[in-house]
Amino acid sequence: MKKIGLFLMVIFSSIGVLAQDFQYSQFYAAPLYLNPAFAGASDLTRIGMNYRNQWPGLDHSFNTYSAYIDHYMFDINSGIGLIFNGSMESKARLNQNEIGLLYSYRLKLGHESFLRVGGQVSYVARDAYFGDLIFGSQLDINRGTINPDSGEGLPEDFRHRFADFNFGMLYHSQTYWLGVSAHHLTQPNVSFIDENISKLPMRISAHGGIKIDLGEGFINNYFNNSRQERSAFLAFNYKHQDPFNQLDLGAQFFIQPLVMGVWYRGFPVKYALPNNESIVGLIGFTLESGLDIGYSYDFTISKMALRQSGGAHEISIRYSFLFGDPNQRNRRSTIIPCFRF
């Protein structure tokens, strides 16, 4: 059993850190993954997708993807959502898929200030295939052969299923926002081996920022002039998942319809996540049709050089539209002034 435990630690170390959640650079383009309180926060019906390819320069990359839909119900001041998250590590064929239901409630605290409280319950499936891996006990150095039987008594396929629970709160006005969230409240056991216990550490996040109005502009389309929003956003995202911490700081500029952003991931904090320091650049478009498209690239600046890792590519797409009574459109006066991606 000790051999099996050691083997699993080696495998998990290949994807970075044991029992750590994946992350998106465009964290506000994955709002339901960031904080359950964001469910329904657009006051519209919203459909979105995210994809991230991390370290494509290595022999074995790490891919993550998400899809979600959420909707706001004005009559009961509530948001509902459905999210699917997936990750895949090619070396050990380690896959994790999650489907979750979300609910949030909006409380009005003042004329332009609101508090949203949300929760999520998920079903998680983790699978791994170790049949293609070779143990040291299989190697016959003298003959130069490989014994097909490792003698470890280790099955080729591992499967594990569990329930997971998340909670979040979000305060916002017309110019700033502040949120906190806690994921894996029950710290479920994620070990593939029944006799072992490997708890998934709780992930605690604090995130917020401020919107700065840069003055209204105009777009000339040869027939008439339309108003153009111009604004800047400063934001932070802090995460703690035992024993690691991470702080991201950045800015985005919105000159309708163009969005440009830059932020730094991995500011020095105690027990920072290793090999994760990056400068992230983003370009995106927010169209009047309700379609938002963003692309970002992580320039690795940690000990794992950019030439070796290949950085990380990330794409986000979402579409927002009004579903239901069109008279509700005039009630959309509480939009959270946060990063668009």
From TrEMBL:
InterPro entries: PorP/SprF_Bacteroidetes. It comes from the Bacteria. Keywords: Signal. Residues 1-19 form the signal peptide. This is Type IX secretion system PorP/SprF family membrane protein.
